[in-house]
Amino acid sequence: MNRKARAVWQGTGRDGSGHLTTDSGILSSTPYSFKTRFENEKGTNPEELIAAAHAGCFTMALAFQLQGAGFTPTELATEAVVSLDKEGEGFKISKSALTLQATVPGIDRTKFEELARAAEKNCPVSKVLNAEITMNFTLA
User: Fold this and answer.
1) What domains appear along the chain, each with residue ranges and CATH number?
2) Looking at the record, which segments are called Disordered (predicted)?
């Protein structure tokens, strides 16, 4: 399986701008720039997209872990916070912090944590990130 996205950039790093488009069309000429990355201008940035990918991947992986163990979640809500830090002359994504709120009928905390930790370690986005990954959860 392959998925594609395209980036087009015009101008310098600081003053230029670009747009991102995905084959699915969910991103369609979505703007990004220095200001959307390092300031708060409207648009997206690579770290936001990685955070969305990590939250989505982890949450789906957990749903599969729970299903395999015979549990059906009522809701799994995950926030991922990706940290971009200065490293030498450039920057590095140093951390992705996952915060999960879960409602899963009939599961105890120990079993849930076991399955959530497995999802944290084994989702494909976790495997590709060269960063510290943390996961905290609240089980209702």
Assistant:
1) 5-38 (no CATH), 46-139 (3.30.300.20)
2) 1-23
